[in-house]
Design goal:
There is one protein chain. It contains three helices and 17 strands. Helix content is 15%, strand content 45%. The radius of gyration is 18 Å and the shape is globular. The strands form two sheets. Strands 3, 4, 6, 7, 9, 10, 12, 15, 16 and 17 form a ten-stranded mixed β-sheet that branches. Strands 2-1-5-8-11-13-14 form a seven-stranded mixed β-sheet. About 2% of the residues have low confidence. It is α/β, with parallel strands linked by helices. Helix 2 packs antiparallel against helix 3.
């Protein structure tokens, strides 16, 4: 028997303020509710006190955003999927974003430890007029510490009904995927950032989002650049008329996360006219 952690988040608008109510069961809860940008945007920091997810554990987050609300949800540290003796460790995220609401789903990275059997299932329902930005960062093992990912599996599922469906089964022994230049190319960190809307984005708006993030990619790949970004590969595309996606492959989490944060900052200003307000837990 594993841990069952459930968290229900309800966002509603009261005047100019996004008000958040939460209920939890088990070891999953809200650590902080903050308003660093004023009343309109609620920053939520979610925490799992046991510190890791093992076989048989299930973490489930349900979020409902009413019209006119804006929530930014993050975590204070990595989600760690530890070795399993058989059962899967499961994380399920399901958010419903109403017309006129905005969601930013920005957790820190997930780490797949050697021997883990893990499932990470993300599901976002966007009503017409709803918009969101989200990212997902997966690190396979801890190569810098000599803790490589040689056994186990990781199921990654990302669903925006009618807009985007992605389902990937990653196995530690699948070297054609992990080491091929057509796959992960020997890197062990994959980052994905997306901007999505409940209705089609105007062509000029989507093009501007793509252009701004491609400028960042080109700057990282500029001749003469060295250091952490040298082993980073990235690309941006519009996978659907309502979705723009940035992909990053890297040898380490830090350069990939740095690029995602920079892209998120640009998109936030371009799409919503909001300057980046990075949660302070990212700096501790």
């Amino acid at each position: 028997m594993g841990w069952l952690g459930e968290l229900n988040l309800q966002y509603r608008r009261e005047g100019e303020r996004t008000v958040a109510l939460d209920r939890h069961h088990g070891p999953l809860r809200v650590l902080q509710r903050l308003y660093p940008e004023g009343d309109a945007v609620c920053h939520h920091v979610l925490v799992h006190p046991p510190g890791g997810v093992v076989g048989g554990d299930v973490l489930a987050v349900q979020a409902d955003l009413a019209s006119g609300t804006h929530a930014l949800i993050t975590t204070p540290g990595a989600t760690r999927f530890y070795r399993s003796n058989g059962p899967a460790a499961v994380q399920r995220i399901h958010a419903r974003v109403a017309d006129g609401a905005r969601l930013e789903w920005l957790p820190l990275e997930a780490i797949a430890y050697d021997g883990c059997v893990a499932e990470n299932r993300l599901h976002f329902d966007l009503a017409p007029g709803a918009e969101m930005m989200g990212w997902d960062m997966l690190a396979l093992g801890l190569p810098a510490a000599g803790a490589h990912w040689r056994h186990g599996s990781y199921l990654q599922s990302l669903t925006l009904p009618g807009l985007w469906l992605e389902h990937a089964q990653i196995r530690a022994d699948d070297h054609r995927l992990l080491d091929s230049p057509l796959g992960w190319a020997g890197r062990r960190v994959l980052g994905t950032l997306w901007f999505a809307a409940g209705t089609a984005l105007p062509g000029a708006r989507a093009a501007a989002l793509l252009e701004s993030v491609r400028e960042l990619i080109e700057a990282d790949a500029a001749p003469g650049e060295a250091g952490a970004t040298a082993s980073l590969q990235a690309g941006a595309t519009a996978t659907h008329e309502a979705v723009v996606v940035l992909r990053v492959l890297a040898a380490r989490v830090e350069p990939a996360m740095q690029l995602l944060v920079q892209a998120w900052s640009r998109w936030r200003m371009q799409a919503w006219g909001l300057p980046a307000c990075a949660p302070r837990v990212w700096r501790t």
